[in-house]
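Today's session is about reading a structure prediction critically. Students often jump straight to the picture, but the first step is always the sequence itself: look for stretches that repeat, for charged clusters, for runs of hydrophobic residues. Only then move on to the predicted structure, which in these notes is written as discrete structure tokens rather than atom positions. Here is the chain we will use throughout the hour.
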Amino acid sequence: MNILELLLLSGEFIENKEGVVITFSNGKMAKQKNFFYMRLHGLMSEGLKENHLIQKILTETIDDITAFLPVEAVTEREFIEALTECVIGHVNNKAEEGFVFFNEQYNGDRKEFAITHKKHPLFSHMVVLFYENSVESIEKSIISRMLIDCYRYEAARTYLRKIGFEREFKLLESDD
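Below is the predicted structure for this chain, in token form.
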């Protein structure tokens, strides 16, 4: 392996830097962007909007984003942490609310429960409790619905306003 190959390979392991600049003996230069930069750039252009962040939170893959944020990105990290707490807290509260309501109201007669409570805002999620009566099962149902409902940016922003999350997200500033 020659020195150029080593330099190019080293670019794959440098974190929190865009990459390496190689200056050749004839004065020409080349820039090798590293894997971490390319991954972060892709996340920033595609995945750092509220709808993408909500998707990552709900699928428990938010670490895919935070792992590539530079250490200096304190504001972005704080935003993602607050968003995560708010979204997970909302899911947990709704799941608990539906679980408690179902177990207080359900007397073993599915038809009666459906007729009586079909207008309840959590009814479509509570029906999973007929088959598996656990907070986790209603939580999964709520998450599945939210993944659909928050797919688009404006829908995600509306959801966040509805649950009281008013902070605005600002993308990392580019060095270019």
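Discussion point for the tutorial: The chain has a mean pLDDT of 84.
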